[in-house]
Specification:
Length: about 140
């Protein structure tokens, strides 16, 4: 994953590294989703405890992706976004949103605006469950 706390590489370098790995290995993909979350919501493991540093890192990731021609989206939820990026930051709102809310309801009826997003693109409505001995998350994409 692309996280500022996991490596000393810059945001741009991390995105370029991921892009080159995918391209060099012939991986076909439609979008690169930037995962904005922390384990247990505690800042400092993946993301900095400094919100402005996180915002800068995030904007640089998106800028590098755009430079490389990568179609991008953001995976997060309201709690993680406001914890990591701050409640007033809307720097990702022009990108599609894939949000997580584990309510077992495949609809957007629960969505509340945050981070500048007024509507989502995808909802992850159930966390890891097993289907045919494989762990899967359940997502809804109308």
């Amino acid at each position: 994953g692309n996280h500022p706390q996991c490596t000393s590489d810059t945001a741009a370098t991390q995105v370029k590294f991921a892009y080159n790995n995918l391209t060099n290995n012939g991986v076909k993909y439609g979008m690169m989703w930037f995962d904005i979350e922390e384990p247990n919501g505690d800042l400092g493991q993946y993301w900095s405890k400094n919100i402005s540093d996180n915002q800068s890192f995030f904007k640089t990731m998106l800028s590098q992706a755009q430079t490389l021609g990568i179609v991008s989206g953001v995976y997060t939820n309201q709690y993680m976004w406001t914890t990591i990026m701050g409640s007033s930051f809307s720097g990702g709102s022009t990108y599609p949103l894939w949000y997580a809310h584990y309510d077992s309801n495949p609809s957007f009826s629960d969505f509340e605006t945050f981070g500048g997003w007024t509507s989502p693109s995808i909802k992850q409505y159930q966390g890891t469950h097993t289907v045919c001995d494989t762990g899967l998350d359940a997502d809804w994409y109308p």
